[in-house]
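Please check the following for our workbook:

***
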Amino acid sequence: MPRPIPFALAVASVAVVLLGTVSSGFAQDKVGVKSAVNPAATGTSPGGRSRPLVIGQEVVFNERIATTDGGQTQLLFLDESALSIGPTPT
């Protein structure tokens, strides 16, 4: 199983990927889906409240993703690339 990448790097990577896949001016555009959540992660869309992530749920432009110390999630983008996010290794 691949080693999870640090949270700060994951957030930066998501921002770069999202900026490259969505045209500007449409902040709530779907950019992908959550394809795995183990066991707990949350997502906060721009201007929205934090909510638990579930498999199949949309990922929107500029959504902030966070995991618990034991949580992991995988995002599948519209261009079929994927990003796994997990806790910072100690």
